[in-house]
Each structure stands twice: as structure tokens, then as C-alpha cells.
Amino acid sequence: MTGRLLHVGPVIIDVVMEVDALPRAGEGVFASSARTLAGGGFNVIAAAARSGMEVVYAGAHGSGPNGELARAALRAEGVSVAHAPDPDADTGFCVALVDGDAERTFVTRLGAETDLSLAQLSTLRPVPGDFVYTVGYSLLPGPRADELLTWIDGLPDGVRLVLDPAPVVGGLPRRTLDRALARVDLLSLSAAEAAAVTGRAVPEEAAALLVPRVRPRGVVVVRDAADGCVVAGAGGAPRRVPGFRVRAVDTNGAGDTHVGVFTAALARGEGPEESARRANAAAALSVTRRGPATCPTAEETDALLAGRAPDRVTARLPFEADSGNRQTSEIFRQR
Q1: Which domain range does residue 294 map to?
Q2: pTM, rounded to two decimals
């Protein structure tokens, strides 16, 4: 595989709790389980790395216990870290509540990961063939967003920019989003996010409207949960790539899995539709497992694509706060 993924988005810590149902205002519930794991941008990083892509974490991170946990998780995936930790702040965290329908609700406290400076970005040396990943959270109004956009504007030709606008896309200034999209080579977003940007609820219609806003040879991917995704590019109509039907137990991180696997497939030279089918398969396997970074290995994705997925597969879960090594668990695939 040629080309690295330089990830300049935020890695945070996820505190994942499973509940039967969310509490009403003023009430409380007991969680049936709780885990503390690397999350946020880590989910994309893990997905790309497990697909065989070389990944460098080039975002900011803190010097406290959350930062230590994030770096341990990155090392466990074979991912290098470009910058030293912030000596004055810790990495932020997110409480993710997963209910009985496998839907998730988030409460986030930001930290050192939001303070990635232009000076730090300028130490990076992406070369043609590399991919750079960023996310909508890094483009929210503030001086660091302006610095990130300045750096993005100066990326060399041949370096491909991947953007996931994230659920905060509705809070991005139009000028900021337009400036970012003008440099984007791969835009991947959920159907709800695409609708927020375009006003079109039909993914094919939304994708068609987004294509002219990215680079001339750019690819737009609208992720549509169990229905797969829609892929669009210049010179052709948007194409629906069907998903894989599975029994979901936790949808946390499925979109990140899709983005990471899709990017790794493109880097390997696969076409957009082939990359989409692979990303759909990986995302389907990921929702059969509990946790935010549950992307399957490349071999497991290959097996599902070939129609020979085993009855039992081993889920690779990220480094946890109360363990000293990567955890594994046996997951029984629903037929």
C-alpha cells in the first residue's frame, strides 16, 4: 500500500455505558456495563490501521491520564504520534450512553485535543500519495479552525484531504465549510448530515448537490446506515452501494469504521464503489460488537465480502483503562 493517513482530528476518551433506556430529566438509571476506551478520532485511526494503512496521529493530546490512555491505544494499533503532549492540559472525554435499541447519546468535555496549532501542523510533511483526515469538530468557530484551514489550503498537490463533517456540520459557518470543501478529495458524511447541508433528505439527491462543492475529481459518500451508502463523483449519477444485514448491538463508531476502511481501500488503489462495498461490510461487522472502535480486521472483512464469514469472530477492542493489553472477546455472528 502506498500513502499514509495523517490524522489531524481529535482523539478523546470514551466512557461507554450500557443502559436499558435513557433517564428522564431529573431521574437516574443504572448502567449494566461501563468501559473507558480511546474514542473520537481513534475510531477512524483504528479502522484504517486494521485495514493495513500506515497511520500517523498528528492531532493534539494532553499530558494527564486521559492522554496516557489515548497514546497507549494508539501504540497498540501500531500508530505513531507526531506531536508531544500538551504539558498544561489533559485529553478530553465523552460519556456515551448506549440504550436497548443500540442507539447512542453523547455528553462531551473537550480538552487538549482542541488546541492543535499552525506551528504544530507546519512540522508535518505530507507528500503526494498521502491522505490527510480532519473532522467537523476541528472546524468549529475559533482561532485553531482558521489555522487548520490555512494549513489545509497549502497542502501539496497529490495529497488527498478526507473530511467527515460530523453531527456539528449545522454549526459550521457557511464560509468555513465552503473553504474546507473546496480542498476535499473524499467527503464522507451521514444521511442526516448531508440533509443538514443540502436540505435534501434523499441521499442520492444530497450527494449530487455536494459533488460540485468538492474538488473536481473528488468523491462524495453519503452513509445510510443499514441501507449501505451512496457514492457520487463528477461525470456520473450517484450510485447506491447496498449494505449488509446484521443484528446490531452497538452502532457507536460505525460511521468512523466506514470512513477509515473506505480511505484505506482508496489508498490501495480500489475504485470508489469497490471501496464503498468494503466499507459497508466492515461497518456491518462493527455494529455486531460492543464498543466504539470495533472495526474488524481486513481478513474478517474479506470473509464477509466472500460470503464465508465464520460463525465466530474475534473482535479487537482498544486498550482499556483497567487493562495492560488489547482486549479480545468472542462475538457470535447472527446468520
Answers
A1: 4-21+33-332
A2: 0.87
Q: How many domains does one find in the chain?
A: 1
| Pairwise CA distance, residues 196 & 148, whole Å | 23
Where residue 24 falls (left for φ over 0; alpha for ψ -120 to 50; beta otherwise) is beta
Q: Which helix (H) or strand (E) holds 98?
A: strand 93-98
State how far the Cα of 333 lies from the Cα of 335, in Å rounded to an integer: 6
Give Rg (Cα) of the chain: 19
Q: What is the CATH number of the domain that holds 221?
A: 3.40.1190.20
The answer to whether residue 290 sits within a structural domain is: yes
User: Which pLDDT tens digits describe the chain residue by residue (335 residues)?
Assistant: 479 999 999 999 989 899 999 999 999 999 999 989 898 899 999 999 999 999 999 999 999 999 999 999 999 999 999 999 999 999 999 998 989 887 878 899 999 999 999 999 999 999 999 999 999 999 999 999 999 999 999 999 999 999 999 999 999 999 999 999 999 999 999 999 999 999 999 999 999 999 999 999 999 999 999 999 999 999 889 999 999 988 888 777 899 999 999 999 999 999 999 999 999 999 999 998 876 678 899 999 999 999 865 444 444 444 444 433 332 222 222 22
